[in-house]
Structures are given as structure tokens and as C-alpha cells.
Amino acid sequence: MTNGNNRRMTAIVCHGPEDYRVEQVERPSPGPGELVIKIHACGICASDCKCWSGAKTFWGDNPWVKAPVIPGHEFFGVVDEVGAGTLGHSGKFAAGDRVIAEQIVPCWDCRYCQTGKYWMCEVHNIYGFQRQVADGGMADYMRLSTNAIVHKIPDSISLADAAIIEPLSCAIHTVNRGDIQLDDVVVIAGAGPLGLMMTQVARLKTPGKLIVVDPVEERRTLAMRFGADTAIDPTRQDAPAVVRSLTGGYGCDVYIETTGAPIGVTQGLDMIRKLGRFVEFSVFGKETSVDWTIVGDRKELDIRGSHLGPYCYPVAIDLLRRGLVTSTGIVTHHYALTDWNDAIAMANSPDSIKVLLQPAP
What we know:
CATH architecture of the largest domain: Alpha-Beta Complex
Number of helices: 12
Distance between the termini: 7 Å
């Protein structure tokens, strides 16, 4: 919260692996055409957990994370200040508007941004990982630069639903990458927050059969509630054998990997049919080795990556507005910023699904 008129605020500040501190920092001010939003909620993502724990993808020889930085890319809030001038977001948003910015801050100059592929921006600043230009939402207030892609959120959408717009957008993009057809057998590996949102979105594609694989009973139960036809416990069942038994011995048509664990990859290559579509979403904490002969010589698979949620935020907002997707059962815990240590411990625990941080009103 701000402290009187001295423009200080509470924020989580990442200084390095397992070195995240609750601090009083300077509240951001908007430059010309920029926005400052009052954060209403910010989710803790699996990538936040891996970053906190020191995963090499974040903290390698040339660290992608530019510490000290305020983490958090699953945020939303209300416009508190609009920068002067007529450029940028000025005239498009006003104080009191409920908004979300996409997680990437595109440069708008590289070959990807110039050709509409902004989510693969070569500069690739992501909120919560690069200081100043992309300080994140685990704070009372947050600055959105003129490069940010900002969307309004209807007042009818609940706080918990609004808080999952970012991961839901990623889920929509991932499911779209699977190019699901009406008669496809689809397997979603991992029923964490993203897997459960992908389950809801994939069900809207009406596949022939929707299968979810996860070792946690509560998550399998939730996946069934969200429309899965079958939920497999890979610790008690031979998941590839079960999938083959349900597909005349062939295997699934589409496999979506969202476990973030090496077994999720090798299991998928085993259970997918020849000429199938393998969609990789996860951020991994360590390297994964596979027999690439399966991809080419054995099965001639389509391997498709999925990154962020390009062009999917309006769709996510509309699905939530219409009640076709929900956060109910997914958002399980709420913490104040000052309870960071408890929040990250819970986010790293199988006892939670989605943990939200909520700044003081």
C-alpha cells in the first residue's frame, strides 16, 4: 500500500534465486501516454516457481532475469493514473478502467513484431523478469509502457476469473496449436492450472475423446468436472497402454504436454499415434532427453511449440464473460503481498492449484 504522500509502495523484489524480499519501493509514475494501474490480484505461475528455485532457463550464464526486478505476469488491476499527452494509451483508457496487459512488452521494431508475430519479439521483455521496462504485478502498483498491449475487463467478471485471463490466454493458444478436429482423441498431460484451463478450452472444441493425465486425485476429479472423458493416474496405471486401449491400439491424435517434467515428454512420444500432433507448452526446470528417432523415422510427428497467448486475450475475456470457462476450483489460495514466503511455499506445494497475491485495498 502507498505510505501517505511519499509515493512508496509494497512490492515483492527478486534479487536472485530463492532471494525474493518484501520491500518498500518507489511507486511508479506514468510517462507520456503510459498507465499506472492499482493491482487487484497477481497469480503465481509455475514459471515463477521455477525462477524462484533457480532453474537454468532463467539463471544461466547470461541470466534472462534482470534482477532486482518485481516479479509477476499474471496480473490485472484498475487504471490509477494516465500519463499526459495524446500518444500511447491516452484517450483509450481512463482512471477507473479495469484492465490487463499482455505478458510481453513488444519492441515493435524487430522482424517478428513488424510481421505481426509480436509474441516472439526478439528483445522479448516479459513482465516480471526484466527490471524497469517490465517490472511485474507483485506490487501495489505497476507501470504499463506505451508498448504494452492493454485490454479492458468487463465489471461482470469476478476477481478470480479476471486473475486467470493471462494463463487462460496461454491455454487457448496451446489448444489452438493442436488443431483439434471433431473426431480427435486428445490427451492433456498435467492438470495444474494450465492443464485444467486447457481441458475446459479443448472441451469447447468437442473432440471425439478428451483424456487428462495427472497423479493428483483432486486434480483428476476437477478435470472430469471440466469435461474430460477419462482421467488417468500415471502412478497407478500404464498411461500409454490405457490410451492405446481406448484408440484401437493406435494412440492419441493430439498430445498436449503441460507437466513441466521430463516424463511428460517421453510418455507423450510413447502414447501418440503415427502422424500425430505433439504440442509442447511447459517451462522445464532441467533438460529432457528423448529418442528423436520416434519423431522422425518411427512416427513422423508434428512437434509444435506454444508460447504465451497471442491474440487470445479478447477470446479469454469473452469466454469468462459468457461463463464457458471458470476459475472455480482452480484458484485455491489467496495471500497478501506481505505473506510472500507462505505464498511461494504453497504455490510449490501439491496442496494448491493456483495461488493469488492480493495487495491491500
